[in-house]
């Protein structure tokens, strides 16, 4: 048994050294190395990463930059390991895609610039009191927060008769709860009852959605990773119940929502990439950069809107 | 090459932290002979309690202590399900773990609590790995020493006997219900402690922290046993072996990540590793049993 | 209350799978009185209730009716581990009586603490080791030089001898032996039986010994009982017992039960 174990480790190490030798041989002129740590794979996060890479290669030239993209497969312990690898490799910049990734990076290095993306609230994520929009030190980034009050107002604009709104989200996601709370408050201020419906993971999405649909006039879904992954299921249930949903982002809206105040995750990632380029070229210092937001567009899903008989006013773009 | 070596200290630190958790698994799995799945939840409970307390300004040592107590409580719940309600051990552990999911969310008032070392005085942080290593090595030594002494006491021996032969233990006047309680409480207390240490090191507590912890723990125990076997059978050596196993596991993991091999496969690799190392001795026993036949010879 | 009575079983009833198709009444209003110092051998066919009777005394489960009084104390409602301090037990399976993962001396140390409150004191002290070495030497099996060996590496006969030693250690009021040589080869079985006789005589232990070997049942002990279908049908002591032969026993059985004795092992040995 001990022999088998030693053999396995030996094989891994040998393969590793070969790869190392190869990569060492390739290092030539000054190239920027950027480590990308993404918590899990899904559409929005992937789009952000793509946008980021595009912006960086546009601004710095594809030959001048190497990306080390690592996916943590949903395991927060992996984030720590991945970031440790980046620090040991002395990358020039770390892009942290989603909250746990950002937190892991924040606690691993004070010197390497860290740009977060797909993070909703930086003050909460980093435990900063009295957050004023700039993190300072070696951290900045972009937020996927669409102005939540505008988002909540969209519900009332499109469905003025609404009495109860069901807030559908995953209890395991810090970002979602934050958005839900803000929307809840806004709606309460307008005299509309909002009730929370949370599922713990993709296994109870169906059950919870069905209940929410039965008890609400309209559903609101924040930028929730689990909801995004289960959007098709949510869509079938809502169409069956003939209930409309307003989604926090385009990906979810395209599968189950009527309209969204959309920020494109690709654009968000692109903006992050632009910030990265500025930092790497020395044009700006990261400690002075405030958290940036992407512009929003009102978008609607024609298929679902038609099926539910919703009339979409002027100013909305159709989701392709 | 230098960069690879530079990534090792943090990997070793992670190995030591998860080694603490693996010690908890060792107590239930090897000593008590119970497969306790509560640990997936208890890791997060320890982290959640510690994070929330530290953020509220509680002294960090006190926070560690309270986190450990929370883990002990979790172990008691599993014991209750198993011993008082008669639910099979594995299921009892799963039930407690499910309960802990909701409880942890409530403790954190959400899915995540940040405890960055920049804002709070924590005992160890990934920002300063050398100091973290010092803290962790001392902690490991203290844990090994305390457990070595404990399992040499009369009460400790009754726990070992319970795990080795329950019927015989009762025939020798041992209250096996009580020993199981002590074992489960102790184990989960230690696992919660590991969670509390982990949240300080990585700077946050997250509801998803414990997922698959039992497999990591088992892998560490088993790798450790395979490596330590030639060195000695002393109990302290065996406990040290658990830490060694965990460190090896995390070094392999860091290596895989460092050289951009497919991390998706790592969970499968850990599971296969556990299956192989558990299965080989079992098969060996089956084969030799068949050769010797039924009657035991004097 | 007679001061000379060690064990009194009154009207013991035990049913398995009660209320189902498989219901079996293992013990049917069993009565048995043992005097202090009695060494009773118990024989009977398969399913006669011998082991069940021992388990009822040991408290492995609660009986469905009747009472168990040991040396004047009613232990009917005590859990198994609480009765253990009055009893010594050796099982048929040599693996059952000792903890395989623990050393010989650790097993003995556990037995030495049977019935005592366990604390955080060391599980075994230096002084004890000398004692154990002496005890093991008397067995004559060479175990005295292997105190720190794990019990799992010992042979079945050695484990049974060890279990016997452990059972007798705290001067139990009653020694329960459940076919404890059945799984051993003839030579080892004889050795273990010798050790058994020695220990019982030395400590003057009241003993119930189940055996499948009718000759052993006759030669050992001062009293012999035969069980059938949950009750005692034959009870012979003293001189009458000494004079018995195996053929006598078989005849007595047929008369008392009205059937053929159904245990090949017992007849052929």
Features of the shown structure:
heterotrimer; A: 320 residues; alpha/beta; Rossmann fold; 2 domains; seven-stranded mixed sheet; six-stranded parallel sheet; 13 helices; 13 strands; 48% helix; globular; C: 269 residues; six-stranded mixed sheet; four-stranded antiparallel sheet; 10 helices
Would you mind describing this structure in some detail?
The complex is a heterotrimer of chains A (320), B (298) and C (269). Chain A is of the alpha/beta class and 320 residues long. Helices cover 48% and strands 20% of the residues of chain A. Chain B has 298 residues and is an all-alpha fold. Chain B has one domain. Chain B is built from twelve helices and two strands, in the order αααααβααααβααα. In chain B, helix 6 (129-150) runs antiparallel to helix 11. The mean pLDDT of chain C is 88. Chain C contains ten helices and ten strands. Chain C starts with a strand and ends with a helix. The longest helix of chain C is centred in the C-terminal third of the chain and has 18 residues, at 186-203. Chain C has helices spanning 50-58, 80-83, 104-112, 126-139, 156-168, 186-203, 214-219, 238-242, 246-257, 264-268, and strands at residues 5-16, 24-35, 39-44, 65-70, 73-74, 87-90, 174-178, 206-210, 223-228, 231-237. In chain C, strands 6-7-8-3-9-10 form a six-stranded mixed beta sheet, sandwiched between helices. In chain C, strands 2-1-4-5 form a four-stranded antiparallel beta sheet, with helices on one face. By secondary structure, chain C is α/β, with parallel strands linked by helices. The interface between B and C is large, with 27 and 44 residues.
């Amino acid at each position: 048994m001990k022999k088998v174990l030693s053999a396995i480790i030996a094989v891994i190490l040998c393969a590793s050294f070969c790869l190392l030798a190869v990569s060492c041989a390739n290092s030539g002129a000054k190239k920027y190395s950027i480590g990308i740590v993404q918590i899990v794979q899904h559409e929005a996060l992937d789009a952000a990463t793509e946008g980021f890479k595009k912006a960086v290669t546009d601004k710095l030239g594809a030959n001048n930059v190497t990306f080390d993209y690592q996916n943590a497969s949903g395991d927060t312990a992996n984030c720590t390991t991945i970031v440790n690898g980046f620090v040991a490799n002395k990358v020039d910049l770390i892009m942290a895609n989603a909250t746990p990734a950002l937190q892991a990076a924040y606690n691993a290095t004070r010197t390497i610039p860290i740009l977060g993306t797909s993070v909703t609230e930086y003050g909460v994520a980093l435990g900063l009191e009295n957050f004023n929009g700039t993190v300072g030190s070696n951290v900045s980034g972009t937020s996927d927060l669409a102005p939540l009050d505008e988002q909540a107002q969209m519900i009332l604009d499109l469905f003025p008769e609404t009495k109860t709104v069901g807030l559908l989200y995953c209890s395991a996601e810090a970002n979602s709860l934050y958005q839900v709370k803000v929307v809840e408050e806004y709606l309460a201020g307008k005299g509309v009852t909002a009730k929370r419906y949370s599922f713990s993971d993709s296994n109870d999405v169906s059950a919870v959605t069905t209940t929410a649909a039965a008890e609400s006039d309209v559903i609101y879904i924040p930028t929730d990773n689990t909801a995004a992954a289960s959007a098709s299921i949510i869509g079938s249930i809502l169409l069956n119940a003939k209930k409309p949903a307003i989604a926090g982002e385009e990906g979810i809206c395209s599968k189950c929502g009527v309209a969204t105040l959309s920020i494109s995750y690709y654009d968000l990632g692109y903006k992050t990439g632009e910030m990265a380029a500025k930092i790497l070229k020395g044009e700006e210092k990261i400690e002075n950069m405030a958290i940036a937001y992407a512009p929003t567009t009102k978008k609607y899903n024609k298929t679902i809107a038609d099926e539910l008989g919703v009339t979409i006013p002027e100013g909305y773009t159709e989701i392709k | 090459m230098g960069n690879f070596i530079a990534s090792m200290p943090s990997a070793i630190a992670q190995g030591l932290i998860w080694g603490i958790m693996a010690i908890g698994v060792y107590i239930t799995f090897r000593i008590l002979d119970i497969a306790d799945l509560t640990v997936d939840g208890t890791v997060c409970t320890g982290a959640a309690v510690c994070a929330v307390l530290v953020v509220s300004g509680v002294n960090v040592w006190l926070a560690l202590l309270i986190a450990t107590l929370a883990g002990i409580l979790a172990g008691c719940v599993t014991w209750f399900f198993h011993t008082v309600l008669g639910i099979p051990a594995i299921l009892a552990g799963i039930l407690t773990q499910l309960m802990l999911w909701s409880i942890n969310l409530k403790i954190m008032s959400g899915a995540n609590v940040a405890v960055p070392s920049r804002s709070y005085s924590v005992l160890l942080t990934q920002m300063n790995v050398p100091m973290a290593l010092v803290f962790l090595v001392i902690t490991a030594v203290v844990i090994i020493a305390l457990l070595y002494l404990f399992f040499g006491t009369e009460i400790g021996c009754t726990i070992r006997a319970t795990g080795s032969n329950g019927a015989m233990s009762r025939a020798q006047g041992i209250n096996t219900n009580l020993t199981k309680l002590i074992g489960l409480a102790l184990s989960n207390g230690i696992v919660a402690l590991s969670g509390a240490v982990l949240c300080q090191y990585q700077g946050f507590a997250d509801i998803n922290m414990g997922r698959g912890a039992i497999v990591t723990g088992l892998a560490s125990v088993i790798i450790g046993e395979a490596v330590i076997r030639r060195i000695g059978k002393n109990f302290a050596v065996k406990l040290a072996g658990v830490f060694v196993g965990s460190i090896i596991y995390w070094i392999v993991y860091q290596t895989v990540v460092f050289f951009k091999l497919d991390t998706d496969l790592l969970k499968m690799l850990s599971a296969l590793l556990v299956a192989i190392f558990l299965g080989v001795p079992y098969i060996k026993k089956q084969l030799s049993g068949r050769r010797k036949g039924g009657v035991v010879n004097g | 209350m007679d001061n000379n009575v060690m064990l009194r079983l009154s009207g013991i009833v035990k049913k398995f799978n009660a209320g189902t198709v498989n219901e079996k009444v293992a013990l049917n209003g069993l009565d048995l009185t043992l005097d202090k110092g009695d060494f009773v051998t118990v024989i009977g066919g398969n399913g006669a209730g011998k082991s069940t009777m021992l388990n009822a005394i040991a408290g492995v489960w609660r009986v469905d009716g009747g009472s168990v009084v040991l040396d004047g104390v009613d232990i009917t409602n005590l859990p198994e581990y609480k009765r253990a301090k009055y009893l010594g037990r050796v099982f048929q399976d040599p693996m059952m009586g000792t903890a395989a993962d623990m050393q010989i001396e650790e097993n003995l140390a556990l037995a030495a603490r049977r019935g005592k409150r366990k604390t955080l004191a060391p599980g075994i002290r230096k002084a004890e080791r000398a004692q154990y070495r002496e005890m093991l030497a008397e067995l004559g099996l060479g175990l005295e030089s292997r105190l720190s060996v794990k019990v799992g590496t010992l042979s079945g006969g050695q484990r049974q001898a060890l279990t016997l030693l452990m059972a007798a250690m705290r001067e139990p009021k009653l020694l329960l032996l459940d076919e404890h040589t059945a799984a051993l080869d003839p030579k080892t079985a004889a050795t273990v039986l010798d050790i058994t006789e020695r220990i019982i005589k030395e400590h003057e232990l009241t003993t119930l010994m189940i055996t499948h070997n009718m000759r052993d049942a006759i030669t050992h002990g001062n009293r012999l009982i035969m069980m059938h279908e949950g009750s005692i049908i034959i009870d012979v002591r003293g001189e009458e017992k000494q004079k018995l032969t195996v053929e006598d026993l078989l005849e007595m059985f047929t008369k008392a039960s009205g059937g053929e004795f159904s245990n090949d092992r017992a007849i052929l040995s």
